[in-house]
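Dear colleagues,

As part of the handover before I leave the project, I'm documenting each prediction I ran so the next person doesn't have to rerun anything. This entry is a single chain, and its sequence is reproduced below.
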Amino acid sequence: MATHFEPVSNVASLSLDFVVVGGGLGGFSVAHMLCQAGHKVRVLEKLPGLGTPAGGLRVPPNLSKILKRWVGEEELRKTAVLNVSTPWWDLHTGERMGAAAWRQDVMSETGGDFLMMAHEDVHRMVHRLAVASGAKVDFGATVVEVTPGEPRPSVTLASGEVITADIVIGADGPRSLVRKVVLGEEDDPRPEGVTVFGAVVPASYMLNDPELHHWITAQEVKVFLSSSIVSSYSIASHNEFALTIHWPDEEAGTPEDAAESWYEIVPTNILNLDSLAPLFQRMVKGASCLYRTRSMVRDDIDYWIHESERIVLLGEAAHPWVPGVSHCTSMAVEDAVVLGTLFSHLSSEDQIPRFLYAYEEMRQGRTTQVRERDVSNAAFLRMPPGPEKDARNADFRQARGEWDDGALKTEFEGLFELFGYDAYDAAEEWWVSWGRYNNNNGGGNDESNRPLSEMQFSFASMSVHQEGRDE
């Protein structure tokens, strides 16, 4: 199949060798961006290949606009399902309490659509892009050591092979080996008290159920609420139905040593569903198994760049996220776009630290803001029994299908600002406003050499992509 993508607007006059540790969505995305910018990239992934167990992926507009730019809308629609509504259901009674619509006139202002996709489809998509752009991808390549250099760092594989690069990017997830090198110490993850399960139900099962059959064709993310949260939606062009289940550890049968990984497979009967709505019970039983991961909490880190200024973190290696929520993947891909766009302007090795610190500061502010929104949203939806939950449910029942009704207005008032963010514009705006004034011969004006934190720079001033805008 032919791969279509829109190249970045600039190709670096100085080409570097990058090694990317981790071949997930963020790793392949940054490989694609950097290759398009004229750099050489080698991706090291410890898994043996593509096709590992995975469930669904919610693709908000800030991510879908990037994928559409890369592969074209027609290609994207081959596997995506448009999300036009989010209804809320009571997990115990099965009551449909209300819904809010993702109105097209509002979504068009963000420059993207809210899509629902299979994680595997997106993973294969960005892998194809990386390879087509020129990246070398090694599967079954386990990195056991990352060594800072003077200046070139190196990575050592379990096979004994040592690979040297100009820059090493740690895109190796929340349990990142590269983060340990950047920080100089192990992190200290703590259980959040929530286990997250993913599952996929075949369309044939849903179509044979008199109550569930129309769900497989619906263009909506159904959210079931109690002290747990379940998101469910059609994926793979309506051929599968995905579930993401956030369940209290004490009710999930989660052992103390449960893995923080999506690759642990457990039977569906590990969950006691007896007190829940019968239609929900039937939906879960349609899955052949569950993919389990444990949600862990880590302290934020102040820096993503090693002191050598040649090793940098990306995606969950830099900002671990609650698994299974809306913006985890979009933040990793945005990271990739910003880093790749900045390095498309590289003309001198003197610019490397400046570009890395610009990336760090831009992305730290954005990811902190969005993660706070995801955490706030989860708390809003997972309220314990009491007056606040009753008031929220009353607002759900009275909602007219708009996000600005009652309690929803406060909780979701910043949602479209998040969706409207354009990672390309963010990076280019920094370059136009600050980066290009850094003279390649070491001169430049004094203003351009100031740290970003001292500059008059804010996300509020960044451009928001709109339909019809000149690229």
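The mean pLDDT is 86. The first helix runs from residue 25 to 36.

All the best with the project,
I.
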